[in-house]
Amino acid sequence: MRPRKYTTEKIIIKLREAEVLISQGMDAYEASRQIGVSRQTFNRWRKEYGEMPAENHQVTWDGSKMASGIYFYRLQAGDFVQTRKMVLLK
Fold it and tell me: Which end of the chain is more exposed for a tag (fewer CB within 10 A), N or C?
């Protein structure tokens, strides 16, 4: 099997995805499998590029003009995509 070549940008995206998984309680071995690289490659990338700590972001949504109901939102970081729902009650 031929090794894949990743750009620096893709490596950083994959490292950030792995750090999000690790911050959610997954161990580093499983996180490396989840992003599609070997543990050896993952460790080499971390050594070369440093750990990419998961960043916390906050968004304020003004629902004052929206009707009560269930709303869906999507979190996206690189290849990581998660859709969640929230309930607005007035």
Answer: N
